[in-house]
Each structure stands twice: as C-alpha cells, then as structure tokens.
Amino acid sequence: MPSQVSIREVAMRDGLQIEQPIPLRAKLELLDAIAATGVREVEVTSFVSPTKVPALADAAELAAELWRYPDLEFSALVASPGGAARAVAAGLTSIEYVVCASDSFSSANVGRPTAEAVAAIPDIAGIAHDAGGTAEVIIATAWDCPFDGPTPPARVTEIAASARAFGVDRLSIADTIGTTTPARVTDLIAAVRPIIGEMALGAHFHNTRGAGLACAYTAVSCGVTRLDASAGGLGGCPFAPGATGNIATEDLVYLLGDCGIDTGIDLQAAIAAAGVASSVVGHPLPSALLAAGDRKRD
C-alpha cells in the first residue's frame, strides 16, 4: 500500500453542478472551508454550456477570485477546445477533459459520440500546454453507462491509449454512475496500467450504491495515489439518471488515515467543510462522518 494519497476536492465543481445555482459569495464561503482542510488540489469549476449546467455559469467570475488562495492548485473541467480556451483566458491552466467511454452517454453529456470527443484531445492538450499548464483526460462511464449497460474494458483502454499518444499529462477513470465494485476496479486498473506506462493514474468514484469507499480503497491497494472526493458527499451527474453521491472527502480521509495512509488533510476541518457544504446548498448531505463524527481516540 502507498504511504500517501493525494485527494482532489471536487465539491466546487462536481458537487455543485447538480444543485440550484448559489451566489458567488456562498461558493467562496465553501472554498474558504475547503482551503482550511489542508487539501492541495481543488477542481473549482467547469467551462461548459451555462444552459446545461447553470450552477456553474459564473465560472469566470469565480476564477477571478482565486488569487485569494495562493496555496491551492486549481483545475477546471471542460468539454471542448472552446471551453479550454475560456478556462485558460480566465487564468486556469490545469485542464480536465472528460471523454465518455459510452457513445450514448457521450451524446447525452456533450452532444457527440466518443470518437469525436477523442479527436478533440490534441487541441485541448495543446491549449493547456501552450499556456504552461497541464491536461488530464477523465474517462467517464469507465465501468457502466446508464443507457448502454456495462462498458467493455477495451473502450476504456482505447481512450487511454489515445490520451497517451496525444501527450496528455494525467489520466483518471471515473465510475460516473456509482455502479462498480472492488473486483471490477482491480480488473480495469490492471488493463489500463500497461497502456499508459508512467502516466499518472487517478480514480473517481460515486457512492450511489454504497460501494464507493470500498472501490477507492481497492484502487489505492492497486497503486493508485490520486483520488477525487467531495465535501459531504455533495454532487452527482445531471446527465445520468440517479447518479447521486460522490464519495465524501471526510469519509475517505478517515478511512485512509486509520489505515496509516497520509492525505495531508485535517479530518476535523474536513468534517467542518462538509457542514458548510450542507449549509450553502440548504439540505442534508450523505456524509457518514458529518452525521456521526470522528471516533474518540487515545
């Protein structure tokens, strides 16, 4: 097992995208709480169609406030070269680009089939690299699609091979609808690893069906040292029916910390951030630690 795991906080983007729009000041309140946890990487927003994701329509305005957080590394998700150009213009040069392994989900999510999405990787990577930044491909529906069912692993490995060939810096595999289980996580990581060589591999899990933390632990046991998580378990995909619930940052920090794996995140501050997340969206969140708290320790 690795001794350290890096957690990217995704509540600001993946967490809020499914919610009703909240004011910029509320987003900054949440970001203040996230910054206090000690996390280093934050997926802060997305530059996508504001009609499809109105909760993140203020991406440029939020980006203009990020100078307040000099110790954080921010990234932005995009769905097209145009989105990447907008992100870079707003000062965000760490670019995440989602490619859906399922054609049906790709059409629902970004309006084009997977092959067309893959063809845009070089342009997006070029925009990021020309700005002195990095490009990451996130393979969505890596295990299952809500429309097409199980995703053939070959679909994932083909996208991974293209990402490597096109000079992408990092790759992540995402359980977009929260259906996978540990054995399938092990199998897919084993299939992807030889394809990407030394490229950094991350993973993104949802807890929709209760297996998210088990899958995250399995990924770590397979050598993955980059995981996404969301304060309070906030979030879900607006284009996937029933796909609620990212794994909660504080729950993941608790699990890994109790196993002797350092995340650099303060657990009590993470629980407090989950409380702020619940407050700004105005409803309870599924976090176990937010409900039960940490256990007493000697």
Structural features:
HMGL, single chain, 298 residues, alpha/beta, 13 helices, globular, 10 strands, two-stranded antiparallel ribbon, eight-stranded parallel beta sheet, TIM Barrel
Q: What can you tell me about this protein's structure?
A:
One of its GO terms (molecular function) is hydroxymethylglutaryl-CoA lyase activity. Belongs to the HMG-CoA lyase family. Keywords: Lyase, Metal-binding. InterPro entries: Aldolase_TIM, HMGL, PYR_CT. This is Hydroxymethylglutaryl-CoA lyase. The chain is built from 13 helices and ten strands. It has one domain: Alpha-Beta Barrel (TIM Barrel), CATH 3.20.20. With 298 residues, the chain is α/β, with parallel strands linked by helices. The model has no long low-confidence stretch (mean pLDDT 95). Helix 4 links the parallel strand 3 and strand 4. The chain starts with 5 loop residues before the first strand and ends in a 6-residue tail after the last helix. It has an eight-stranded parallel beta sheet. Helices cover 41% and strands 17% of the residues.
Count of β-strands: 10
CATH class: Alpha Beta
- End-to-end distance, in Å? 25 Å
Using the 3D structure, state the CATH architecture: Alpha-Beta Barrel
Would you identify the regions where 5 or more consecutive residues have pLDDT less than 50? Answer: none
Outline type: globular
Mean pLDDT: 95
Rounded to the nearest angstrom, the radius of gyration is 17 Å
State which percent range the strand residues make up: 15-25%
